[in-house]
Amino acid sequence: MNKNSDSKKLTLIYLQNLFLKKTDKTHFLTMKDILSYLETKDIYVDRRTIYNDISLLNYSGFEIIGVKEKGGYKYHHPQRLFNSDELKFLIDSVATSKFLTERKSKELITKIKSLGSSFDSVTLNRNVLLGKRIKSMNDKVFKNLDSIYLALAFNNKIEFQYIHSRFNPTTHRVEHFSKNKRYCLSPFAVSLSDDNYYLIAFDNVENILKHYRIDRMQSIKILDDTRDGMEYFKNFDIVDYSKKTFGMFAGKEVSICLECPNNMVIIFKERFGDSAIIRPNYNNPDTFFVRIPVNLSPQFYGWLFGLENNVKIISPDYIIDEYKNILNSTLQKYTP
Fold first, then answer.
1. What pTM value is reported for the model?
2. Which of 183, 248, 307, 317 has the largest count of CB atoms under 10 Å?
3. pLDDT average, residue stretch 328-332
């Protein structure tokens, strides 16, 4: 079998790649373009062969449309799995994801670009975003996720080490290290919050939920032990849980009543949805009362402080006292 005969067997593959890269809704190929391209691959065929190959590609579900023009036809493959705007969105999402390292982001962006035609390459060249983002230091996010989902599927506990960070005053550098301690927990859900993946797991020793950044987990081992806390998660709603949790720091759930200006109602509706119970303040028509369920943590108080003095805690009293202590402690740091 000669070289030309072997090459002809690849004609359909070459044609499919040609139409994927060199055509789209607005770009076409003439028969002359097609024949010239095949000649660069050492394939010499006539028009009738191309017509038959186009029919075979159409029959297989790869649509090639011929459009009549003066002097003949022009052809294109108009449909794409993703259009240009969707590819841009995917690239921007990858580029701005903090849980991916810069290397993995570039790798994924290159793959996404290959889904478009060559005419999309300029508009899809969006790597400039990468250099301005804080990226993950762990390139094993996907592997970690696979291990966690596998443990979930087989109802097993997991064991892992966790990466911590500290500033070394001697070297003037941030050091990343993992303690010898291995954490043994029952995984129950994965949550994406503030551009980071978090594991939500049950600690049967302390009988509480805990959160761990998945990009900081390492040496994950799936254990033979069956997960604990199933009764706890029987009616667990991860969406509702995420609304109540600030910065993915777990805490005791409490119901808090706040007094807020009327123009801030959207903040609570967007954050808590129907969980925010709102009622008017009949003593002051410029404000309203809102009762919200939160997992109490220092991050909640930080969120509250970010709303400045527009919001006032009404109840419970021990939350008011705790917030006062935090504010006073902070103020003392700046008092001579």
1. 0.52
2. 248
3. 88
CB 99 within 8 A of CB 214: yes
The greatest distance separating any two alpha carbons of the chain, rounded to the nearest whole angstrom, comes to 94
What residues form DSSP beta bridges with 168?
A: 173
The pLDDT value given to residue 132: 46
Cα within 13 Å of Cα(80), Cβ side: 24
Structure tokens given for 139: 């390139």
Q: How far is CA 43 from CA 62, 105, 262, 290, in A?
A: 21, 38, 73, 74
Beta strands in the chain (DSSP E): 29-30, 65-69, 72-76, 156-168, 173-178, 183-193, 196-203, 208-213, 217-226, 253-261, 277-280, 287-295, 312-315
Residues in the chain: 336
User: Which pLDDT does position 333 carry in this prediction?
Assistant: 87
Instruction: Dump pLDDT digits (tens) for 151-192.
Output: 998 999 999 998 877 666 677 665 677 777 899 999 988 887
